[in-house]
TrEMBL record:
GO cellular component: a single term: cytoplasm
GO biological process entries: fatty acid biosynthetic process; phospholipid biosynthetic process
Catalytic activities: a fatty acyl-[ACP] + phosphate = an acyl phosphate + holo-[ACP]
Pathway: Lipid metabolism; phospholipid metabolism
Gene from which this protein is expressed: plsX
Stated name of the protein: Phosphate acyltransferase
Subunit structure: Homodimer. Probably interacts with PlsY.
Source organism, top-level taxon: Bacteria
Entry-linked InterPro entries: FA_synthesis, Phospholipid_synth_PlsX-like
Keywords: Acyltransferase, Cytoplasm, Lipid biosynthesis, Lipid metabolism, Phospholipid biosynthesis, Phospholipid metabolism, Transferase
Length: 328
């Protein structure tokens, strides 16, 4: 049995989408228990494998992250993180304030020994449909070469254990594929990665190839990674609008759309971020999953499923072991 703690109050459309996702997850997975934190007045579920705990405070998207974690001790997010810290739950999921969740991860759950800076990782859609692991997505705007090297180790373990890729190809995001390309950060990181036997480093990769399945894991700093992720989300949304406008532009196009409806749905599903769940904050002494703030019930359900798999595959123990080996 896997127990996941859930922040019922975090996210743009909470608690409705959270309750819907929790209900579906608890019905789909017979080996799942949910420890749910939030406002008792808004709790509507009743299931023997859901334990509800009332919280009197809520961290909003406008709250300053560190101050909120320190002052709002009875918030759903802090209580959720404490459940992981106290071994009441193996992992936790929230769609709330990203900065606050990262602070809760650092100050409540705690880092793994040997991890300099935790990193946000997510699986993004790719051409083949299998997806590509990208990190860091914003946990650290500034980074040193050793941080990128450690991100590569964390990404390797994530891809191997959570995604089932036996020998993940790890690449460094850069402005060119040649070894000498880039700034001081990427040049130094490339040198460290090229000399290691901790993971399968395949060299530099350009941004234009991110979705082309040339690597299983792509490593960058949090500033760049966050912009890449938001750009991909924006392009996907805009592309959908363009397609819709063109389909509705004529009777001929509408007829063609009816013929291709099934295929178009398959393509949309392949490129849908909600199929992959949220971002995992790697390098912590527990599983912490950040669902999109604008998550619908489907996306939050996927985040719960992702947290469950991370717990089942003992990803934290595997990272503890591998980071420890790298430090020796």
């Amino acid at each position: 049995m896997v127990k996941i703690a859930v922040d019922m109050m975090g996210g743009d459309d909470a608690p409705q989408i959270v309750l819907e996702a929790v209900e579906k997850a608890i019905n789909d997975f017979e080996d799942l228990e949910i420890l749910l934190f939030g406002d008792e007045a808004k709790y509507t579920l009743n299931h023997p494998r859901i334990t509800f705990r009332h919280t009197s405070e809520m961290i909003t998207m406008e709250d300053e992250p560190v101050r909120a974690i320190k002052r709002k001790k009875d918030s759903s997010m802090v209580r959720m993180a404490e459940a992981v810290k106290n071994d009441e739950a193996e992992g936790c999921v929230s769609a709330g304030n990203t900065g606050a969740l990262m602070s809760a991860g650092l100050f409540v759950v705690g880092r793994l020994p040997g991890v300099a800076r935790p990193a946000l990782v997510a699986t993004i859609p790719s051409v083949s449909g299998k997806g590509t692991v990208l990190l860091d997505l914003g946990a650290n705007a500034d980074a040193k070469a050793e941080h990128l090297y450690q991100n590569a180790i964390l990404g390797h373990v994530y891809a191997k254990k959570l995604r089932g890729i036996e020998n993940p190809k790890v690449a460094l995001l850069n402005i060119g594929t040649e070894a000498q390309k880039g700034n001081n950060l990427t040049k130094a990181a490339y040198k460290q990665m090229a000399e290691t036997d901790q993971f399968n480093f395949v060299g530099n990769i350009e941004a234009k190839s991110i979705l082309e399945d040339e690597a299983d894991v792509i490593v960058t700093d949090g500033f760049t990674g966050n912009m890449i992720l938001k750009n991909l989300e924006g392009v996907a949304k805009s592309f959908g609008k363009v397609i819709k406008q063109n389909i509705l532009s004529s009777a001929k196009n509408k007829l063609a759309a009816l013929v291709l409806k099934k295929d178009m749905k398959a393509i949309a599903k392949q490129m849908d971020y909600s199929e992959y769940g949220g971002s995992v904050l790697l390098g912590l002494d527990g599983v912490v999953v950040k669902a999109h703030g604008s998550s619908n019930a489907k996306a939050f359900y996927s985040a719960i499923r992702q947290a469950k798999i991370a717990c089942e595959t003992q990803i934290v123990d595997n990272m503890r072991e591998m980071v420890g080996d790298a430090d020796e």
